Amino acid sequence: MTRAEKAARILVILDELYPTVPIPLDHVDPYTLLVAVALSAQTTDKKVNEVTPALFARAATPAQMAALPVETIRDLIREVGLAPTKAKNLKRMAEQLEADHGGQVPADMAALEALAGVGHKTASVVMAQAFGEPAFPVDTHIHRLAARWGLSSGKNVVQTEADLKRTFPRERWNDLHLQIIYFGREYCPARGHDLSTCPICGWAASKKRVAEEAAKSAPKRKR
User: Fold this and answer.
1) Given the residues 15, 26, 45, 139, the one annotated as active site
2) Which residue of the set 121, 155, 163, 175 is catalytic?
């Protein structure tokens, strides 16, 4: 099976499983989405959605966030991972948006990546989900599944993103990255996964890959 044939079959399966793909992070505009995505690093979407209502009640705009002391922001987000660093970044990001962009989130990848605490993945999510611009944010789920399915070498997320962009139609990128995330969470976990029974890994993964992951999951013998 060629990579193009494999990609076409994957699209059919994901469309059947996830005909609609809601954005997992609660938000009301580009700014609240940007903040939520920035908070989601090393934290579950569920935890972010638990924390942001209180945060946005105090600071739903860059001007309001910039006016808060870092300590207040940190207390509001203390349950998420890396809260002290994220609090500093949120305040600095808000100040940058006010000073450089008139308090608006720029619909530009380079401008987003220049903001405090915003990396390529966060910027890609905002471009895709807030502005509808084609992007293919690669998180740990997508990176893992692309390698399992033989669509990328899996050496790093930069290579995975490039491989997936070459493999799938540009008009599908925004929905597809969410579909793969949902599939990874529901059907394709990182550990203890039997690839042979997976709806996609079962036919897309190579025999070598199936054997390698089975060996990793097998209980170690006592010596």
Assistant:
1) 139
2) 121
pLDDT computed for residue 218 by the predictor: 67
- Note whether 162 and 205 are same-domain residues: yes
Q: What percent of the chain has pLDDT over 90?
A: 84
168 and 84 in a single domain? The answer is: no
194 is catalytic: no
Q: Which domain holds residue 36?
A: 30-129
Q: Domain total for the chain?
A: 2
Where b means 16+ CB within 10 Å and e means fewer, 166-185 reads ebbeeebbbbbbbbbbbbbe
47 carries an active-site annotation: no
User: Residue 32: CB partners within 8 Å, gap ≥ 6?
Assistant: 52, 56, 60
Which are the contacts of 62, defined by CB distance < 8 A and separation ≥ 6? 31, 93, 94, 95, 97, 98, 103
Q: Which residue numbers in the chain have pLDDT < 50? A: none
Structure confidence at residue 46 (pLDDT):
96
Same domain, 125 and 145: no
- pTM: predicted TM-score of the whole model, two decimal places: 0.90
